[in-house]
Structure formats: structure tokens, C-alpha cells
Specification:
By secondary structure, this protein is an alpha/beta fold. α7 runs parallel beside α9, α11 packs parallel to α12 and α12 packs parallel to α13. The termini are far apart.
Amino acid sequence: MDYLKRRIIGPLLPLLLLTLIVTTAKLAAQSPGGSANSLQSAFGKKFTMGVAVGPADLSGESAKLILQQFGSLTPENAMKMGPVHPRENEYNWKAADSIAAFARRHGLKLRGHTLCWHQQVPSWIFTDNTGAPANRSLVLKRLHDHIKTVVGRYRDIVYAWDVVNEAISDAPGEYLRNSPWLSICGEEYIALAFQWAHEADPDALLFYNDYNEIDSTKRSKIIRLVTTLQKKGVPVHGIGLQGHWAINEPTPEILDACLRDFTATGLPLQITELDVSVYPKEHQARSAQPSDSKTAFTPAKATAQQEQYLNCFRIFGKYRQMIQAITFWNVSDKHTWLDNFPVRNRKDYPLLFDVNLKPKQAYHILLQHATEILP
């Protein structure tokens, strides 16, 4: 009998082993960052690699790319106050729920974005039932109820929240942004938002999130805010650095100084909205000029972009003990907010995957240098 088994099974062993190897590879490729060559597999030992998405990204080739490359999702718009809470007694959960369900189904982490921001705020927040400006107590009650409801709904899946977004002013000599939140509620709204988010989910990591963090003046204001909150015992657990950069900025020296200053706060950092425009950085929206018609993704642009991404990741690696995650702001060049900022309808190519969802030079160069970046 043993002899017959050996005669039958022996020749089949190579085929069985090959089948096992192929099956294992397929399963790996279908799990978060499962590809042997992926962002999550290359950098996930230190950085959770994430991507901002909308419901349209969760099917077809885009979904496959997400599952191959990333370990975390951020809803680009679906959890912002305007889309999710359009009227006082009405929540629109469809888009946010679809992203949360996708994350649960595939074992992905989920970052919540964002609970309190000066944009995409429904008008009813700041007016009373007569249409007159709402008073401080009413606006704060509405903010409390919103945070309690949204954070509570997703506490099983959201591991971190951008609680307050972009509260710092860009204006010289001005500390906090002169938003309705500030003018009606005073500076205390920031601390209260963190307190209420913590009460709704004591296990979630709570971040203050902002842009233009590479500017030393803006950076000092951000650090002033988070250190003030820390001293008051406010549950702020980290700083989100958006990372909306370009081929010409930041320089390695500027980025190194930026991360050194933020690291000195002792708070963990996350790069929350990373993209690298192929055009020189501009900070204000403007009308189109004749030169803006030159939108082809040229070899020169590709080379400049890959060099900038590599420089940034080398600096990230230097501060790997403090950086928890790196999230890209959109999946591919097929859809990016930079197609309409600073110039409307000017095509940009700021991400690691092209308009056909194929990896670009910048992607390949990062994977080639992964062991150098994270030795």
C-alpha cells in the first residue's frame, strides 16, 4: 500500500507544491498590502501606508490597487460635516458607511477626517431657527452632538481622527484662523472638540491636522497650539502634517527642519494628505494663463517628481521613530484635487500611480530604495 502511495503521490508533489505557492500568492495579493512589491510591504514595518478615497474608488481596478498597495483608508470627503450632516436632524451615512464597510471587510485601518473644519460646514450650524446668527452655546451644542454621533458610529473601525483641521491662520501676525468657529465660540472650541471626541471614543488617537507646515512661521503657530493643549491636559495625541507639496518644495533641508521641530513636541506625527505637484508650488488660487495649457506629463516632470518623493521619504526615514503613517491624497492621477487648484481644469500628476492606475517612476524609485529609507 505504501509503495502504491509513493507511486501515485510522488510524481504529483511538484504540481501540488506549485499549486500551494500560487494560491498563497493570490491570497496575499488580495489582502492589504499583500503584494510582494507594494508600499505597505516595503514601508509598513514603520509607516502605515494609507490613501484617501471616495465610494467610487471601492470597486474595479481602483479597489484592487488599494488592496495591493495600502493598509489604511481616509475618507476624502464622506465624513466631513457638510456631506455627512447636511441638516440639523439629518445624517447622510451612505458614503461614509460604504468606506467603513470596505475597511472592515478587507482588514484595513480607517482614519476619520474631519470633525471640525472651517470649510464644508453646513450653513445651519451657525444660524438659529429664525435665521439669525446662532449664539455660542447653541453652536457648541451642535458641535458636541455632531462629534458624539459621528465618532460613536465608527468607534469600532476608526483608529484615529483628524479632530480639528486647519485652525491656524496663514496671515502674518495672526494666530488662529478668523473662522465662524472662532468668532462665535472663541478659542475654547478647539479644546472642547478634542475632549468630546475622546469621550465618544476613548481608544481613538486624536490629531490636530494642518497644511503649510514647512513654513517656519506657520509651524511655530501649530506647535504653540498643540503644546498649549497638552499643558491643559487636552487629549491631543498627535500632529497631522498634510504634505501638499511640489517638485520645488520642500527642500530636504526645510523638510528636515520641519520634522525636527515637530518631533521636539514629543507627539507622534502622521503625514496625512501627501501629494507632489509637477508644477512649482503656488499657495493661492488663480485664473488660467496661456502657459497653463502645457499639461503633458513629460519625462522632465517625471524625473523631478521622483527625486522629490525620494528626498521626502529619506527624511521620513530619518524620523521613523515619530512618524506613524503616510497617507496619499487620492489613489492615482486619474482623480486629484490638484486638477482644480491653484488653476481650474489644469491637469496635474501628483501621485505614485498614473491615470491608468499604473505605477510611475516615483513609485519604482521608492521601492528600490526602501531598505535604505528604513534600514
